[in-house]
């Protein structure tokens, strides 16, 4: 038997989750008082990889780190599945704020600027994400690490990368 769906209750719960995330963000920003606090947050955001926390906005990365200070890689349930990993049963999702955009000619009043031409930010909706530590499965793909171009080995590597790209260009 299918679950009954109450749209009004879902919208109400969604608004509450967004408000809670905004309040947590304000409290988290207020708690960043010292250079050591900032350093700890920035070190946590320095992870590399396809689901690294730094691909999120600073606001959403901070929300994740407030809930799980050990989080370095986060993704949605579906993204973890695509990577061959599954969320461990009983794990609680973290809530981040996903922006909602509308065409510029939409009736709603914009609340911020967007990167996309012809789009405006109209609101946020809650998005559930899970940390790597909340999942099980094969290891993540190794992150691509850039070489230091100031060293002879790094310079040679950089030239090889450019050559590979240049040879792939159509004439």
Can you tag this structure with a few keywords?
171 residues; alpha+beta; three-stranded antiparallel sheet; two-stranded antiparallel ribbon; 5 helices
Task: Please provide a written account of the structure.
- This protein has five helices and five strands, in the order H-H-H-E-H-E-E-E-E-H.
- It has helices spanning 7-31, 35-44, 58-67, 77-82, 152-168; strands at 74-75, 86-87, 94-103, 119-131, 135-136.
- The model has no long low-confidence stretch (mean pLDDT 80).
- The longest helix is centred in the first third of the chain and has 25 residues, at 7-31.
- The protein starts with 6 loop residues before the first helix and ends with a helix.
- It has 171 residues and is α+β, with helices and mostly antiparallel strands.
- The strands form two sheets. A three-stranded antiparallel β-sheet has the order 1-4-3. A two-stranded antiparallel sheet has the order 2-5.
Straight-line N-to-C gap: 61 Å
State the helical fraction.
25-40%
Number of strands: 5
How would you characterize the largest beta sheet? 3 strands, antiparallel
Strand-residue fraction? 15-25%
Mean pLDDT reading: 80
Please sum up the structure shown.
This protein has 171 residues and is α+β, with helices and mostly antiparallel strands. Helices cover 40% and strands 17% of the residues. A three-stranded antiparallel β-sheet has the order 1-4-3. Strands 2-5 form a two-stranded antiparallel sheet.
Please specify the SSE layout and strand pairing:
Elements: H1 7-31, H2 35-44, H3 58-67, E1 74-75, H4 77-82, E2 86-87, E3 94-103, E4 119-131, E5 135-136, H5 152-168
């Amino acid at each position: 038997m299918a679950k009954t769906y109450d749209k009004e209750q879902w919208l109400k719960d969604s608004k509450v989750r967004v408000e809670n995330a905004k309040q947590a963000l304000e409290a988290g920003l207020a708690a960043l008082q010292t250079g050591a606090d900032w350093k700890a947050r920035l070190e946590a955001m320095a992870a590399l990889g396809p689901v690294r926390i730094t691909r999120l906005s600073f606001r959403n990365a901070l929300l994740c780190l407030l809930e799980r200070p050990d989080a370095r890689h986060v993704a949605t349930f579906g993204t973890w599945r695509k990577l061959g990993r599954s969320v461990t049963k009983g794990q609680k999702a973290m809530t981040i704020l996903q922006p909602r955009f509308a065409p510029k000619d939409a009736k709603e009043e914009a609340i911020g600027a967007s990167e996309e031409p012809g789009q405006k930010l109209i609101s946020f909706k809650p998005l559930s994400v899970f940390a790597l530590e909340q999942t099980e499965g094969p290891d993540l793909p190794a992150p691509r690490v850039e070489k230091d171009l100031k060293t002879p080995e790094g310079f040679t590597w950089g030239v090889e990368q450019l050559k590979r790209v240049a040879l792939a260009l159509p004439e």
